[in-house]
Amino acid sequence: MKKLVAAILSTATIAGVVASGVTAFATQDIDGRYGNTSGEIQVNGIIGEFDNTTPGPDPVDPNEWINVTIPTTALFYTTEASSHTEIVSPNYKVINNSAVGVIVSVSDVDTPLNMGEVDLLNVNNIELFANGEATVVDTELFTLTGNTGANAEGDFGFNGEATPVDSSKESNPSFNLVLSFAPDLADEE
To answer: Which residues are the signal sequence here (predicted)?
Structure first.
C-alpha cells in the first residue's frame, strides 16, 4: 500500500512539475480531429558550466545571462576654471560580455562620506545627490545589446555643482555607486 501511495504521489508531483513547466514555455496543440496524431518537441540541453558569452538555450535562472565588466573605481572633481563649483568626470564604460542584452540601472548609493559640499551630483543626468543628501531612486541607466551588437558598451559620467567651504583646500567626498543588472531577454538573437 505504501508503494502505491508513493507511486501516486511521485506521479502527481512529476505531473505538477511538467504542467507548471509547460505553461512557462510556448506550446502546441495536437488535435486528432484534424488528422494530427503526433507532434515534435525540440529539446535543447546544457552540459557542463553554462557559457553566458555565446548564444544557446536559456538557463533555468535568466540572471545567469548577466556578464558585464564595470570599473572598480570612478572619479568626479571640480574644475579650476569654474572656481571649483562645476563637477565633471571622465567617461566610464560598462561592457556587456553576455550573448543577450543587459539592462543597467542605478539602484542606490552606499556609504556616502563628506558629501556636504556637493550641491548636485548626477550620473548621466540621473540625480544621485542634492544638497549633500542621497536622492537616487532606482532608474535605468541604459540597455546594452548582446556582445555581438553595436551597442554592447555604455558610457557613464558624473556632472553637477559644488559649493566648497575653502576652494584652496582639497576635500574628498565619496560614496559607492550601486548598479543593478537584469537580462534583456527581448534582445536575444
So the answer is: 1-19
Q: Are 134 and 151 in contact (CB under 8 A)?
A: no
What DSSP string describes 6-38?
HHHHHHHHHHHHHHHHHHTS------GGGT---
Beta-bridge partner residues of 123: 126, 158
Q: Count other C-beta atoms under 10 Å from residue 60's C-beta.
A: 8
Q: How far is CA 144 from CA 72, 80, 97, 125, 182, in A?
A: 19, 35, 10, 18, 10
Assessment of whether the complete model's pTM goes beyond 0.85: no
Task: Kindly report the number of other CB atoms within 10 A of residue 161's CB atom.
Answer: 15
Question: What residues does each domain of the chain span?
Answer: 62-187
Half-sphere exposure of 32 (CA within 13 A, CB side): 1
**Residues 6-55 pLDDT 10s:** 333 333 333 343 344 433 457 787 777 788 767 776 777 666 777 888 88
For residue 45, count other CB atoms closer than 10 A to its CB: 6
Asked if 124 and 111 touch (Cβ cutoff 8 Å), the reply is no
